[in-house]
Amino acid sequence: MGVQVPDEIARMVERADADLKAGRYVTVSTPEESLALHEAAMSRLRARLARGAS
Prior knowledge:
Blueprint: H1 5-21, H2 31-53
């Protein structure tokens, strides 16, 4: 059976907490920075989905 969504979300939160504690985060101050961050995240997501579809 596949990964349960609540389990995957819990792991994502744990990774995010660890990143924050380690100082791995980006401060977004402008709409342009927000857009750039969103576009980068979507690009990574599309690449990940494309690898999974192969």
